[in-house]
Amino acid sequence: MSSSQEGRVLAVARDDDHRFSKVPVDAITLLAGVGVEGDAHAGATVKHQSRAGREPAPPNLRQVHLIHAELFDELRTMGFDVPPAGLGENVTTRGVDLLGLPRGTRLHLGGEAVVEVTGLRNPCAQINAYMPGLLKAVSPRDAEGNIVRKTGVMSVVLTGGVVRAGDLIRVELPARPWSALERV
Q: Which residues fall in a coiled-coil region (predicted)?
């Protein structure tokens, strides 16, 4: 994996309520230590409804959700037409192997914003409510029977800034040894 890997922002989205899909917008503003301005999941502590109810004080490692558009391409071949923001992501990317990044990777989005990848998004049953059968398509099992989580990565905002569709994404890998992404 090369730290010179680059990609593009395909779309950005936010939602001020806890709905499954987010609303595509022209631009989002990332706030350091908080997340996407105006998004229901923004905050220094956990905002995800199922997690906050159990333990409201843990740090929010899920401030910004990114999904690779290549997943949507793959799903389309299986008969699922999922648009950007359809799976609740804030940033839809193209050209970056998000699932192959090590924990702690920094993604420079546009000219200012920097997020740090904290882990994999854990697909939930709401995905089947959105499109029946989709959960199995985005969380298949490998040869050993382990779930392969394909629904993108979660991150925290290190440096705030405005992010728009078309912005360049520059990948900055952490120092070795690398830690594989786990669900957060």
A: none
Question: pLDDT per residue over 55-76, tens digit each?
Answer: 667 899 999 999 999 999 999 9
CB proximity list for 167: less than 8 A, separation 6 or greater: 8, 9, 109, 110, 111
Question: What are the sequence ranges of the domains in the chain?
Answer: 6-172
User: How many CB atoms are located within 10 Å of the residue 6 CB?
Assistant: 12
CA distances from 3 to 16, 34, 96, 125, 171 (A): 34, 26, 11, 35, 6
Tokens of 108: 């420079």
Q: Is 176 in a helix, a strand, or coil?
A: coil
- With vertex at residue 86, the alpha carbon angle to CA 85 and CA 88, rounded to the nearest 5 degrees, is 65
- CA angle, corner 177, sides to 184 and 100, nearest 5? 50
- The yes/no answer on whether domain 6-172 falls in CATH 2.40.33.20 is yes
β-pair type (91-94, 64-68):
parallel
